[in-house]
Amino acid sequence: MAFLQVNYYSQVLGMDRHMNVILPELSDHNPSWTADMLQDIPVLYLLHGMSGDQDIWQRRTSIERLVRQTIVAVVMPSTDLAWYTNTTYGLNYFDALAEELPNKVASLFPQLSTKREKNFVAGLSMGGYGAFKLGLGTTRFSYAASLSGALVGNPQFGTIPDETPHDYWTGIFGDLDKFVGSDNDLLALAKKNTHKPQLYAWIGEQDYLKPTNDDFIPKLRDLNYDITFETAPGKHEWYYWDKKIERVLEWLPINYVPEERLS
């Protein structure tokens, strides 16, 4: 596997951006791979939470080690603190990540698949919201996974830590009284989506976001979404996300090679 740090210019945001990419390559570590196998490679977009950036999955988890003998590329972008959203202050992060970024990835790495059935998205906390938002709000991704996701309705109702200023939320989402039914409301997106991606969600039993997951998941099932929902003892911490990202890899249709089978 190659690990690449990519700087590129975003026309949508009008600024330089960064993404990290784990890219399958021919090497002595995977002698059974051929050049033909490294075409039309599946892609997993891996999204960060509120305190992270494009580096955080690499720093806090074993993601590079876990995929080292699985033919899948992992793209780790940043949304800053913008919640994968077209903000009211004029920076369209949703458009930049949902449309511009995959097109940029395709142009820089033509060996990566652009097929919906081979494009996936996953994230934690804010990134869990982002993963479901990209999965439900576009037709680009066939699988979307949330770990400890902020699967919230109106964010002013206390599902996110209370110390976050009200002006921050309105800067991202606008008038919070109009959140429900908007393009930022995951349930509204789910109702409009006609492609119905496969969904996965995990949440720790001691996580402060568990009530939002418990409330949201049945509503998706009522809309006939195929969603795997799992819980276990756990808090809102990297210790658990490091473990559960492997569960996501097992769930995805990528022929994941578990670590115990590696030499």
What does this structure look like?
With 263 residues, the protein is an alpha/beta fold. It has one domain (2-258): Rossmann fold, CATH 3.40.50.1820. It is 30% helix and 19% strand. It contains 8 helices and 8 strands; from the N terminus they run E-E-E-H-H-E-H-E-H-E-H-H-E-H-E-H. The chain has helices at 56-60, 63-66, 93-108, 126-137, 166-173, 186-192, 210-222, 238-251; strands at 2-10, 15-23, 43-47, 73-76, 119-124, 143-147, 198-204, 227-232. The chain has an 8-stranded mixed beta sheet, sandwiched between helices. Strand 5, helix 4 (126-137) and strand 6 form a beta-alpha-beta unit. The longest helix is centred in the middle third of the chain and has 16 residues, at 93-108. It is globular and about 55 Å long. GO terms for molecular function: acyltransferase activity, transferring groups other than amino-acyl groups; hydrolase activity.
What CATH first level would be assigned? Alpha Beta
Give a quick account of the main beta sheet: strands, pairing sense, barrel closure: 8 strands, mixed
Unreliably modeled segments: none
Tell me the name of the CATH homologous superfamily. Alpha/Beta hydrolase fold, catalytic domain
Structural class: alpha/beta
Number of strands: 8
Number of helices: 8
Shape: globular
CATH fold-level topology: Rossmann fold
Q: What topology does this entry show?
A:
Elements: E1 2-10, E2 15-23, E3 43-47, H1 56-60, H2 63-66, E4 73-76, H3 93-108, E5 119-124, H4 126-137, E6 143-147, H5 166-173, H6 186-192, E7 198-204, H7 210-222, E8 227-232, H8 238-251
Parallel strand pairs: 3-4, 3-5, 5-6, 6-7, 7-8
Antiparallel strand pairs: 1-2, 2-4
Helix pairs in contact: 4-6
